[in-house]
Amino acid sequence: MLEIHNLSLSYDSVTAVREVSFSVAEHEAIGLIGPNGAGKSTIMKAIAGLLTPRSGEILFEGRSLKGMTPDQIVKTGLVLVPEGRQIFATLTVAENLALGRAARPGGKPEDVERLLDRFPVLRERYRSPASGLSGGEQQQLAIARALLTRPRLLLLDEPSLGLAPIMVDRVFEIIDEIRASGVTVLLVEQNALRTMAFCDRCHILRTGSIQHSGTQAELAGELDLAHAYLGI
């Protein structure tokens, strides 16, 4: 579904990602893990069209994303839930969700009702400003907004960042439900152990390049890797 070939990205003269290659098959959950500054979020931004690669290629369902704007990429069925949630705090929950529907027209009115059933707290706060939501509730809103674009591939960048443990559990439950519904997932997370347990495969990044790849079982034996790259 997604193919990344020799992707390199820079901020001004600083190279953030060096010739990264990996793929995501349909219905897979793939994790990108590693320390801060490893290039994980930079890769996600490039896939979503928010950064222009210095070199390399990004293909979604066989089609190059080169030169496409973020809104055009959303319409292909590839959607990013960004780090920090990036909801519109001064708008209501309803208005935030309406923006999700507008990003990819053609959905049905009952789509919102189904999402409100999945996220009861959003129904309770539907007419309230998003600024009044807790961190975990805001993350649910960000995910719900993305789901209204009807993604086939959902990119999740640090969805548990800054959340209490009970809300981290809830967010991973939601991601698991999304995956079970047939949506492919690419997940960036600081919670390395949780990510390895959840995903089919993970790629460990350090200083802008992939150092190791594998399943949870394959990576679990890399004790030196865990200490050096993940701090666990």
Structure description:
The protein has 232 residues and is α/β, with parallel strands linked by helices. The protein has a single domain (2-230), classed as Rossmann fold. It has ten helices and ten strands. Strands 6-7-8-3-9-10 form a six-stranded mixed sheet, sandwiched between helices. Strand 1 and strand 2 (14-24) form a beta hairpin. Helix 3 packs parallel to helix 6. It is globular and about 45 Å long. The two termini are 32 Å apart. The model has no long low-confidence stretch (mean pLDDT 90).
Write the layout of secondary structure elements.
Layout: E1 2-11, E2 14-24, E3 29-33, H1 40-47, E4 55-60, E5 63-64, H2 70-76, E6 78-81, H3 93-103, H4 110-118, H5 120-124, H6 135-147, E7 153-157, H7 165-180, E8 184-188, H8 192-198, E9 201-206, E10 209-214, H9 216-220, H10 223-230
Parallel strand pairs: 3-8, 3-9, 6-7, 7-8
Antiparallel strand pairs: 1-2, 1-4, 4-5, 9-10
Explain briefly what this protein structure is.
This protein is of the alpha/beta class and 232 residues long. Helices cover 38% and strands 26% of the residues. It has a single domain (2-230), classed as P-loop containing nucleotide triphosphate hydrolases (Rossmann fold).
